[in-house]
Predict the 3D structure of the following.
Amino acid sequence: MTRHEIIDMIGVSGREWRLSGESVSPVMMAPNSTGLYETAVEPIYSEDVAYGERFEGVRYPSTTVVWTAQIGADLGRDPETWHSLYSDFRADLDYEDPVTIRYTSTDGVRTRKLRLEKEPKPFSVYNFEGRDPHLFTFGSIVLTMKTELPFYVGKTWTWEWKDENLAANGGSTWFPVSLNNPASVEAWKRFVVSDRAEWVFPDPSFGSKAYGRSVADRGRTTKPLKLGPGEGAKLDSHPDEQTVIAENDALVIARWGDDLLYPIPKGKKQDFIVRVNNCTNPDGARFRIEIPRWYLNPFSRPRITL
């Protein structure tokens, strides 16, 4: 357990810079760097009502983050040492390759990737700046950066199941799996399954109105996904990703005729059934579920207990 929240920046070179926390590097996050602590959110309202507006949901645009680093925060350095320090830090920021901001607290570790969006503004924050910074062996630099994924990413939750003797014991079975999300943003589940079997996955709506079947799909399951030899597969419910990728690149989704539709809402937890039938794999059947953890801020308590 840590006494403080710790913020580190992992630069494009892989070097770690302690910006805030128990032991601080010569580069520190300046006060009022509030952009590092929240996710941009845009509520969506419809005006197609008689009075006021109707709330329709929210969207999460890419977030512009403005923050300031103080370089040479411990002072007392000779000009050449400070020069190298500033040069190394500036070289660790890039417009193409992202840096990783890592937050560590009693809630665990969460990360966010940022790229430079605009040119940095050096030596412009404090009244004594604007002269040669080597005179003070100190300098501020204002950074305007941008995210692709706007969220703070925690450790992906995983759970595995296997039955090495399934083919010899009839080839069919079922088992419960937890669909859970203690984070503050909906989660898109992923499955990894072995070949030479038919798999039926849970894909409940959790009351979502996205497809107009919020009640009918509360217990939705997919059609059987039939996998032949070499067709062990990864499935991803995220709408921006390919749903099924087989190990041998076979187009199994074309013959599946189905899809994964629904995310797991924030603060939800419920057990559902996975079925595996007609397993002929002599090594049995294997299943893994992966649920990413996305958060709106770097420090927050779980919304449910696992």
